[in-house]
Amino acid sequence: MPEYGMGFDVRFDEPPAAVDPTVEIADWSRPLGTGRPTREAAFFVDGVRRIDLRLLADVDGTRVPGLFGSYSAGGVLCDRTATFGEHVIAHCLILGGGAKIPSIDVHFGSGTFRFESFSTPGNEPDDPLLRLQDLMRHAEAELAARVAADRTTLVVVDGPLAFYSETRGPVVGVIKRFGRVYLEPEHGQLIATLRAGQRTPLFAIAEPSDRRRRYAWYTRLVDTRSPWHDHAGVVRCEVRGGMRLSEAVALADRVSSLLPLFTGRASDPRTPQNLTPIAGLETWLRHRVGDTRLIRRTLLDHIASMDVAA
Prior knowledge:
- By secondary structure, the chain is of the alpha+beta class.
- The chain has helices spanning 127-150, 185-188, 245-258, 276-288, 292-309; strands at 18-20, 42-59, 62-79, 81-95, 104-108, 111-119, 154-158, 171-175, 203-206, 214-220, 234-240.
- It has one domain (2-309).
- It has five helices and eleven strands.
């Protein structure tokens, strides 16, 4: 669908990185994995965020961009049936230019929403949105870490990994979009030949500081045909680089066999990359974060009443 691009959009959360494609094997001439789906329980984690109202703030005579925004992060356990679990909801007031003001309480009927105040040093119009994205990603990472610390169930996070400490249960990040070309053509051409449940060899990704080292691979969720392009239905998976290579290889095979069981539903415009549990979780979280029309109207009334009082 046009509003979701081609899956190749530039991502703001893709840091510069060095890539080693030979950590598992040097031969990239054939796919790996059995291609046979294998069922097991998995806990999927995702978050949603939205801008409730953009604003221009005057803080001590300085004009800065800002927004009122909301986000939620939660999880769903899929073990033959789907059960929604722990989740967090937050409402934020974010200002650029490093401006800081107190949090704001806004009354909605008999209830009250607190918009916690945050600032970001940047002064570009989208800097507050990037800060909101970071807050949501942090909430997702905290939830994934808590779940993986308490159980051995596989935890699947929608998006790049945001933490790299050891946990009791395995955690894997699943990235839908190709925000960066990590592989050279002689390695990357293998992606187009993958069948459902197959994967590429592992490759290592590291920042120049090596603080965010991870193992990654591409795997195909579902076989596609024209008019889909040959990277449709492919996701990049990543795990922390601190685990033993043999464990990462075993986890890559395990995840590549599992994910095709959760391929996207036809009603989702991001099909097939958006997994069904993630799509359902996003709908569930959006419902709980509040009605955007009501929140926007109440915020406008609140700002108008502040102006009258002033």
